Amino acid sequence: MSHHLFRVGKVWHYRFQINGVRVQRSTRETVKHLAESIANRAYRDTKMWARGAEPVPSLRDLVAQWLAAHQSIVSPHYIRLVETFGRLHLYELGDIEIDELTTPLVEAALLEHRRMHAPATCNHWLNMLKAVCRWALRRGVIPAIPWQMKLLKVQRSPRVTLPVPAAMDWLSAVDDYAGDRQALSLAVRLMFGLGLRESEVLSSRWSWVDWSRRTYTPGITKGREADPVPIPTWLLDYLSPMRQATGLMVCNSNGNAFPPGFVRRAMRAANAACQIEGLTPHRLRSTFATLLSEQGLPVQTVQRLLRHKSPLTTMRYLEANLSAAVDAQESIAQLAGLQPQQKHGGEEVANSTGQSHAE
Question: Which CATH superfamily includes the segment(s) 164-317?
Fold first, then answer.
């Protein structure tokens, strides 16, 4: 037996002996199974220290270590995601040492997460857990990830983009909501016209605009890239009256940066005014990518403008060009004789059999 558990009054204590050294302490727990868990951990940690190895951290401690190690090398957005995961979504796994995580324990935590959150967030939860466990694996903290779970197949909802015919009315609705807060209007136009992420808009600077080359180079990006993005004429005309040599492009009246999510209310107001549901800063970035693709821009070029490391990531941003699909369906129907072919010069064109559909 690794340790001996005994009770003094209502509180459980443990004792064990390793290499001739006796250890006896209180668990400060009155519930036996909780005390047993503390005693097991103390025995294992002491045994590892005796061998000169670091103790295996709990999942909560591992998340804290991950955050400390990655604070300056990953994007602030991803840091916030991991912080939220560690603060709110560990459930019963938080105090379990990571090499004692099992598939049944992870499944139970995932079910608890699913009871309180949308099904589409379950895969995000699993990815957060995998990210910190893989980091522990690379550091040699654990020899292997002790649990196995595949990502769930979740029904995807149709993803919205900003319809081009509604773009002017939608931007006007944003301006109406913004009033004299021109920074809100500017931020939305940077997202729509340059495909910037919200975090890239928050850090945008006038010194990164090359007025002669008509380009903007984001200086702080998620993947640490610094690729120039062409500025369309309409956006350049919008920016010119506000032109400055230095400083933040999007800031409050005191010159300070806005917090994340600062344009959400303006976008929701514009969505309601134009009867568009679910358009967010991220979906505005997807609109930028989709419109470029529909104009015939190669996916490799779209990838560079979006600053993606993989074209597969870019492909997930592109929505299907349904107008092109409609044209193809019309052509198929005409070739099959299911509908009259289009008229040219006032006369119908004969089908492939040489017969005309005109009576």
Answer: Intergrase catalytic core (1.10.443.10)
Using a 10 angstrom Cβ sphere, with 0-12 exposed, 13-18 middle and 19 or more buried, the burial of residue 106 is buried
Q: How many CA atoms lie within 13 A of 171 on its CB side?
A: 19
Total residue length of the chain: 359
Please tell me the predicted confidence (pLDDT) of residue 155. 65
- Architecture of the domain delimited by 59-138: Orthogonal Bundle (1.10)
Residue spans per domain, the chain: 4-50, 59-138, 164-317
At 134 the pLDDT is: 95
CB atoms within 10 A of CB 28: 11
* Rounded (5°) CA angle 318-321-323: 160
Model-level pTM? 0.65
- State which residues of the chain have pLDDT below 50: 1, 344, 346-347, 349-359
CB-side exposure of 117: number of CA atoms within 13 Å? Answer: 16
CB–CB of 106/147 below 8 Å?
Answer: yes
pLDDT at 324: 66
Count of beta carbons in the 10 Å neighbourhood of residue 59:
24
The whole-number pLDDT of residue 92 equals 92
Q: How many helices (H) and strands (E) does the chain have?
A: 14, 8
